[in-house]
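Both lines are retained for reference:
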Amino acid sequence: MAPITDSQIDDLKDLVHKLEARVHDLEHRLESGETKPSLVESMRLILIGPPGAGKGTQAPRIKDRYCICHLATGDMLRAQVAKKTPLGREAKKIMDQGGLVSDDIMINMIKNELDTNRECENGFILDGFPRTVAQAEGLDSMLQAESKPLKHAIELQIDDGLLVSRITGRLIHPASGRSYHKVFNPPKETMKDDVTGEPLIQRTDDNAETLKKRLSTYHEQTAPVVGYYKTRGIWAGIDASQDPEHVWKSILGVFGDSKTTSSSSGILSKIGLR
């Protein structure tokens, strides 16, 4: 019998995540008597957190578990510009002139993804937007018009001092956004992505001096946004200084998914996937 490769293991893990999501959906539909998933029950959330808080670690897990799309607005903007879409051309013109891309353009890019990206049918994670209360209000208006209001605004909270050691050791796989850490979460093979084997990079702005400036800007911008979502009643704070597994369990708790975790694992164990 041929040895099992890392690629096969990763494929099995992906299958497990998708089965868990399917089991979660079926259990809910059996309990509620629904014949299909409702918009009210689909996953729609924003992930808030400073650089290095763990968004790049937790967002893919949420995406895989619930079969939803991950909309990192920075990546989305770059993709639209690269594809030379109408929105991308408009954004590039503004950026070439040294201006900031307007809220309307960003919100329309998000709307376009929700309308055209099949991965967004079950819901979405929004990462990197909104950064101001005005953006949050504009996003809410668009989502309400689409009958896709936000369900959760999850803030990954961590002391600034802990972020320096995290950030300065961070490694990124550019194509997927997967993140690693030289000490806390090293890749299986030095400077290579676990899934593709492609080279990892360290971002040029991942240094202590740049981080302090980014954190100062982040706190100034984010505090009002967090306050906004608290008044909406959808905010939840997670202690991101914990190890990634405890952070993950805390996030599942916000979703009310602790029952699903145990029951799904039991079912998967019976068919040899746990």
